[in-house]
Please model this.
Amino acid sequence: NAGVTQTPKFRILKIGQSMTLQCTQDMNHNYMYWYRQDPGMGLKLIYYSVGAGITDKGEVPNGYNVSRSTTEDFPLRLELAAPSQTSVYFCASSFLTDFGNTIYFGEGSWLTVV
Amino acid sequence: EDKVVQSPLSLVVHEGDTVTLNCSYEVTNFRSLLWYKQEKKAPTFLFMLTSSGIEKKSGRLSSILDKKELSSILNITATQTGDSAIYLCAVEVIFGNEKLTFGTGTRLTIIP
Model:
């Protein structure tokens, strides 16, 4: 049971480069999320999706793009990387029930922009 | 703006002590409150508390939701070094599509 899988786990980017963080989940969850976590800070929502073909901005979307062509996959694209995007990125998924919305996280992707 | 505040920010205790972590929130359209434990990697789920389930317990960990005071506590009894982690509180709100707002966490360190 893989759960939420993110790749790569570590990456160093030069300023101005672009890259895509991959995220896939095998739990058939309809909701998926991308968060970033800076040192000493809580998780901040970048983008989220409530189902295939539907995405929406979170708290800190600038500099990022997402797509949700399938239920399983929710890649996060960084265009023109900047040092301010150095962070740990977590992908997550959840399934809504009458009792709430428990979120399951991937293991994180450590990104450094130099 | 939705707000989740955790206290203390950091806590250092000796093995065997009991600790209480606090979480308060100011949100509209509250749905649930969740506690996560974060060690070196991703946060792992501990408890979810809703109006229909305001107290949860698992082993040495327990949590209570006070909807009147808009707060929750996480208790850990007989602490062990493996309990050292950052404990995150998150509040789920309904705004058409569900959203989860996190606090900054409490860093708990257990000294042997």
User: Anything to note?
Assistant: The first strand of chain B starts at residue 3 and ends at 7. The CA atoms of residues 48 and 98 of chain B lie 15 Å apart. DSSP finds no helices and eleven strands in chain B. The interface with chain A takes residues 4, 31-32, 34, 41-45, 48, 50, 52-53, 88, 90, 92, 97-100, 102-105 of chain B (CB under 8 Å).
